[in-house]
Amino acid sequence: MFSYFAFSKIAGTLIKDKGKTLSKIQEGFAKASENKGALASVWEQLQLLFSLAKDYTSGAYTAIPKTTMISVLAALLYFISPLDLVPDFLVGLGFLDDAVILGFVFKKVTKELEKYQAWRAAKKQKNKIIHI
């Protein structure tokens, strides 16, 4: 059984491969979407982590320490993996450990997430400018 810390090592390697990282992000997003109801308590946090991971990997947002991104990717890998503490197929319990890990990482990187959200808001505002 893999722990979050084992996934941190995997994330450290994965982050070097843009294509594989984006593929894992897409895989995680698909899993999350299929299980939205079971993930209601962490849905917004999970979406923010996916968005950050995608923007970092694509190069759109890089104003974040690599170690922070490794933590985010480790949490997403933990979420994706069927080999976690509580198997995801256990109805009502399967995503409990995932929610704990996601919450832990979310809290750990809160300041960086706030900066990322400010960047996204500024980018969104900039895109709203109407050219006459």
Question: How would you sum up this structure, described in words?
Answer:
The protein is mainly alpha-helical. The protein has one domain (4-128). The protein contains six helices and no strands. The chain has helices spanning 4-14, 18-34, 43-58, 66-80, 96-108, 110-128. It is globular, with a radius of gyration of 15 Å. The protein starts with a helix and ends with a helix.
Backbone structural class: mainly alpha
User: Measured on Cα atoms, how large is the radius of gyration?
Assistant: 15 Å
Beta-strand portion reads under 5%
User: Helix amount, in percent?
Assistant: 55-70%
| SSE pattern, N- to C-terminal | HHHHHH
Secondary structure tally: strands: 0
Average pLDDT confidence is 84
Number of domains: 1
Helices and strands in order, then pairings?
Elements: H1 4-14, H2 18-34, H3 43-58, H4 66-80, H5 96-108, H6 110-128
Task: Briefly characterize the structure.
This protein is mostly helical. It has one domain (4-128).
Structure characteristics:
6 helices, mainly alpha, 132 residues, single chain
